[in-house]
Amino acid sequence: MITLRNVEKFYEGGYGRTYVLRRINLEIREGEFVTIMGPSGAGKSTLLSILGMLDSAWTGEFEFFGQPVHRMKPKERVELNKKYIGFVFQSYHLIDNLTVYENLDIPLSYRNVKGSERAAIVCDTLDRFHIVGKRDLFPSQLSGGQQQLIAVARAVIASPRLILADEPTGNLHSTQGKEIMELFRKLNGEGTTIVQVTHSETNAAYGHRIIQLADGWIVNTAPTA
Question: Which domain holds residue 37?
């Protein structure tokens, strides 16, 4: 599904290049559940953004379902993202001037789902995440945990082939966090590929393998126990 070859990201400064990622070689097979771990500043979120085609300022080769992302124009990358990827951002990235219902509707509109079908899917998702009472509220009216729950719901609503999750349970209480991880496990069991960034050993245990980053390098890859 995903192949990275010698992917690097750096910033030019007065003292030369500062690298965020160095010589990343990585393969992720369809149906895997992969966890990326490492200390703060290791490059975890940057790698996730590259996988999600949200960051184009990097060098190297990136193939996604056999397509050469590194040769694509920005518009083509956006279309791939919309078609295949659901992203849970650490800072939520909900659209402030849209209600919870409207935020959930957007990924479905990208995939040209008919209006009546979209309404049914959104209502089912609101019920599934126990947020029916929040449907007409705006993000500013929600707590951090509630916003994170909406962000997860938005990422999974259109049944993407790939879910990328950056600290998906960071602001949730333990019960909610476990529910989200169990949902990810279920989706993965149904064939969805998942790549998560987390500091949580408990969350990492839900996946198949752990990729350890340090100072921008992959320093270890190992199956979960």
Answer: 2-223
How far is residue 172 from each of residues 77, 166, 221, measured CA to CA in Å? 31, 13, 28
Q: Give residues with Cβ within 8 angstroms of 214, minimum separation 6.
A: 38, 39, 42
Q: Is the pLDDT of residue 14 over 90?
A: no
Phi first, then psi: what are they for 163, rounded to 5°? -110, 125
pLDDT of residue 71: 96
Token duo for residue 64: 């996604």
CATH code: domain of residue 7: 3.40.50.300
**Of 48, 81, 47, which is closest to residue 64 (Cα–Cα)?**
81
The count of domains in the chain is 1
Is the pTM value of this prediction over 0.85? Answer: yes
Q: Please, which pLDDT band fits residue 172 given cuts at 50, 70 and 90?
A: confident
How far apart CA 90 and CA 14 sit, in angstroms, is 31
| Cβ(194)–Cβ(34) below 8 Å | yes
| DSSP calls for 192-225 | -EEEEE-S-HHHHTTSSEEEEEETTEEEEEEE--
Provide the mean pLDDT of the chain.
Answer: 94
Cα–Cα distances (Å) from 99 to 15, 27, 66, 102, 169, in that order, read 46, 38, 37, 5, 22
DSSP 3-state assignment of 137?
coil
